[in-house]
């Protein structure tokens, strides 16, 4: 179900081009990239009524700007596999003031070009385009995000970049072969499934450091299009040789196991790849995860980070309350800043126990949502996992913190996660309950809300099982898409 999903260009010939349209704020773009969530049907969403749009054209040495201006995410590429040399981008619509600017990295240059604006040509004729950055300016930047991605020679499609992020290769001398650009409502997420090619919400660039990966890693990097779904099973086929490959193959920074003993069938996912990039966030209940992970050894699950604090609440985080904030490398930080400092790609949050004391579930849910959205705004592309608030045990102060309120909060947060892209809900509460809905005695350390090592084992195993299933399902779904796309007729869409 982000390091990049790199899909070989061979997929393009068999993929259907789907136009993305500008969304008003009320119609949020959902990027369903991982797990069981069904892709949003673009035709079911309302088109923008404000006329805002982004238009773009590329130029090459042989044919100039023959392809003309494109919009709505339509792919534009140099004819006959020639190199793209220049790009021009402009906005249409007059509802909001402002414009668009862009900078490019070209062949043999180590520095980015100056920012070019509003339809003027960026790049140098005779020099291939290798990377691009695009930003909105003025009032329009307050209402929209500009999202874009490039097809790079040898690497395939990169993930969607947004608002000035790099798309393309840096220091690898790889030409850009195709580009897609689209406007989306501000802070509504990134485009998901376009032209049958799925891209995850992560940084969209490659660097010299990326090129130091092992040949085995390279062979699997971005290879979802090399997955084939046959006889209810998934197999990996080498894009160059067509041979079936086995063993651990890295796809989008995550390792999948294609079992040699089962004719190369996909059988497992390496959870360490996921948890080594994760942070567990919470209060004193989550703090106990530190001891649990320590008891399992440094290499357990790749050494996930635990950022938790006794008496930590949404209010203390928002107020930056000294002594009641999360810590990272000795510094007190808000959650959104901690995720950024740590460079975490996945944030697993378990909150609510302290917040619910004397407060309604609906009020806490509102704070919870704001807290998550603050983390995502500060960390575009981070994937959030809401771990359900764990149950309590005992009868002390039940009215202030009852399992009824906890269950109500969990129900609200599950509904929220189901409605959002890049937010998922993991039910760790149910496995910890007894038949009466209380925390099992055998899992409780204090007769109230805290867990013992047995309880943490159930908690962690539940999360691990969820993530493993989620990513395996994602690989299976992508294999099905790739297999179907390989059989589909080629379709093109012209700009109106």
Describe the structure in your own words:
A hairpin with a 2-residue loop joins strand 16 and strand 17. The two termini are about 35 Å apart. The radius of gyration is 24 Å and the shape is globular. The protein has eight helices and 28 strands. The chain has three domains: about 200 residues, no CATH class; about 70 residues, left handed beta-beta-3-solenoid (Ribbon), CATH 2.10.270; about 180 residues, 3-Layer(aba) Sandwich (Rossmann fold), CATH 3.40.50.1110. The N terminus and C terminus are likely disordered. The protein has about 500 residues and is an alpha+beta fold. The relative contact order is 0.12. Helix 3 crosses helix 8, helix 5 packs parallel to helix 6 and helix 6 runs parallel beside helix 7. Strands 3, 9, 10, 11 and 13 form a five-stranded antiparallel beta sheet that branches.
Summarize the structure.
The chain is an alpha+beta fold.
Tag the structure with descriptive keywords.
single chain; 496 residues; alpha+beta; left handed beta-beta-3-solenoid; Rossmann fold; 5-stranded parallel sheet; disordered N terminus; disordered C terminus
């Amino acid at each position: 179900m982000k390091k990049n999903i790199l899909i070989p260009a061979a997929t393009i010939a068999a993929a259907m081009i789907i136009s993305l349209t500008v969304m008003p704020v009320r119609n949020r773009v959902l990027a369903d990239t991982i797990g069981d969530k069904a892709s949003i049907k673009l035709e079911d969403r309302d088109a923008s009524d404000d006329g805002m749009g982004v238009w773009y054209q590329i130029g090459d040495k042989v044919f100039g700007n023959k392809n003309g201006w494109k919009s709505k995410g339509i792919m534009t590429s140099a004819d006959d596999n020639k190199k793209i040399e220049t790009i021009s981008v402009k906005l249409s619509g007059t509802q909001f003031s402002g414009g668009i600017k862009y900078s490019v990295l070209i062949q043999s240059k180590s520095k980015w070009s100056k920012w070019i604006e509003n339809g003027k040509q960026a790049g140098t004729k005779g020099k291939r385009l290798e990377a691009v950055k695009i930003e909105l300016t003025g009032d329009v930047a307050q209402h929209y995000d500009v999202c874009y991605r490039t097809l790079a020679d040898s690497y395939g499609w990169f993930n969607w970049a947004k608002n000035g992020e790099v798309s393309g290769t840096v220091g690898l001398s790889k030409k850009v072969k195709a580009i897609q650009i689209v406007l989306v409502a501000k802070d509504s997420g990134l485009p998901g499934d376009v032209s049958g090619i799925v891209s995850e919400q992560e940084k969209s660039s490659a660097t010299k450091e990326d090129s130091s990966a092992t040949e085995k890693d390279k062979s699997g990097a971005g290879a979802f299009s090399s997955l084939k779904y046959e006889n209810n099973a998934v197999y990996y086929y080498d894009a160059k040789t067509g041979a079936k490959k086995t063993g651990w193959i890295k796809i989008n920074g995550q390792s999948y196991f294609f079992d040699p003993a089962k004719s190369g069938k996909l059988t497992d996912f390496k959870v360490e790849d996921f948890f080594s990039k994760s942070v567990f966030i919470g209060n004193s209940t989550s703090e106990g995860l530190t001891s649990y992970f320590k008891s399992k050894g440094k290499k357990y699950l790749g050494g996930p980070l635990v950022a938790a604090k006794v008496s930590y609440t949404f209010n203390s985080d928002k107020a930056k309350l000294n002594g009641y904030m999360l810590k990272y490398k000795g510094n007190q930080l808000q959650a959104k800043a901690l995720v950024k400092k740590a460079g975490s790609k996945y944030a697993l949050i378990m909150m609510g126990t302290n917040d619910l004391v004397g407060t309604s579930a609906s009020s806490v849910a509102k704070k919870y949502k704001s807290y998550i959205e603050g983390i995502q705004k500060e960390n575009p592309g981070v994937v959030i996992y809401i771990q359900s608030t764990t149950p309590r045990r005992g009868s002390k102060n039940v009215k202030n913190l009852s399992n009824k309120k906890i269950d109500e909060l969990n129900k609200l947060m599950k509904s929220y996660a189901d409605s959002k892209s890049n937010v998922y809900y993991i039910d760790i509460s149910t496995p910890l309950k007894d038949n009466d809905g209380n925390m099992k005695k055998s899992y409780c350390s204090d007769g109230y809300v805290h867990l013992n090592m047995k309880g943490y084992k159930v908690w962690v195993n539940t999360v691990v099982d969820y993530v493993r299933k989620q990513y395996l399902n994602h690989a299976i779904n992508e294999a099905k898409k790739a297999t179907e796309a390989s059989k589909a007729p080629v379709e093109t869409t012209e700009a109106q």
